[in-house]
Structures are given as C-alpha cells and as structure tokens.
Design brief:
Elements (H helix, E strand, L loop, with lengths): L3 E4 L7 H12 L4 E3 L2 H14 L4 H14 L9 H4 L10 H10 L3 E3 L8 H4 L5 E3 L1 H11 L1 H14 L7 H10 L3 H8 L6
Parallel strand pairs: 1-2, 1-3, 3-4
Helix pairs in contact: 1-8, 7-8, 7-10, 9-10
C-alpha cells in the first residue's frame, strides 16, 4: 500500500513549493491527493493578487491532474458535516483525507488541524518542510534527483544552485534547502 497524502491549498500556492511537491509526487514516492475544492482555494488565492493568470491557472490545474494519476478525490462531501476542526472551512480537507485513506495532510496551517481532531482517523498534519525532510530520510537519492530536475526546468530565468535553494527556503522549506545544499555540486 502506498503512502497517501493530501496537499492543502496553502502548499499549492506559491508556485515554487507546488512545483517541487508535485515533482516529488511524480517521482512515485507517495500518492498525492487533492480535490476540486482545494484547487479552487489555491487558485482563488492567487487570482486575488494576479487576475491576469486566470487562463494559465486552468492549464496549471489540468497539468497537475494529468501529472499525478488518481490525484482528485471525490465523494468526500457527505463526511464534512460530521467533522470538527477549529476552522469549519478546513473540514473538507480532512474529509478528503479520510475518503482518500491518507496518512498525512501536508499543510502550513498546522494549528488548523490539531492532532486530537485527526488522531481518530489515523491522520496527522505535517508542515511541508517536515514532509520533505521525511521523504529525504526515506528516499534521499530520489529527492536530490527531483530537486536537480526541478532546478533544471527553471529557464525563465534560470536559477543558480544558490538562488534555487534560497527560493525553497523563502517558501518555508528551510531544512529542505539546508539538506539539499549538501548536494550542491550535483544540483
């Protein structure tokens, strides 16, 4: 059985974190999941400041769904009302995780997913930096290779290794950037 994670909207926007996490998912290290509602949340957050990206976001969303097979979770809606979280607007994420059989919700907003609320479902909320660090511990070579491919794909403009690692750190992936720095000569 594969390890299943649900990406909360907050890790899908901004783009550098989303791109890195999606690339890790396409490396086959885990099964990444999200919903149409999660897509709606992250795209609306971005459109609030960049309405000019509406067309590009439709394409990005489609590419994400194609890149990660079986990523879209459906049928979770009936579970929402019976769940309790500090912010009722986050219940759909937990419902999707339950429906998907996920072990983890990857989110920056850890306080919105307290352990006592998730424990009955065998789910834990994990910060994306911690999540990538765990993947690093389990699949070091695959994470380094993914980072190398991610950086190589950045051509407009291209990024030096240092600039790439600074971008990851600025997104909150501080430990990830520090660990990848050990492999700077191959990135």
């Amino acid at each position: 059985m594969r390890f299943v994670v649900v990406f909360d909207a907050c890790v899908l926007y901004p783009a550098p974190m989303r791109d890195f996490l999606i690339r890790l998912a396409t490396a086959g290290l885990f099964a990444a999941k999200w919903t149409d509602r999660i897509h709606y949340e992250w795209t609306q957050s971005l459109l609030a400041t960049r309405p000019d990206l509406a067309g590009a976001l439709k394409r990005t969303r489609s590419l994400m769904d194609q890149a990660v097979p079986d990523s879209l979770v459906g049928g979770y809606e009936p579970l929402i009302e019976g769940l309790s979280l500090p912010d009722p607007d986050d219940r759909h994420v937990l419902a999707a995780a339950i429906r998907a059989g996920a072990q983890t919700i990857v989110t920056i907003n850890l306080r919105d997913f307290p352990a006592p609320s998730l424990a009955p479902y065998g789910i834990e909320a994990v910060h994306p930096d911690t999540f990538v660090e765990q993947q690093f511990d389990l699949h070091e070579g695959a994470v380094v290779t993914t980072a190398k491919r991610h950086r190589a794909a950045l051509r407009n403009p291209p990024k030096s290794v240092d600039a790439y690692l600074e971008t990851l750190a600025a997104q909150g992936l501080v430990v990830t950037a520090d660990r990848l720095r050990e492999f700077a000569d191959v990135l």
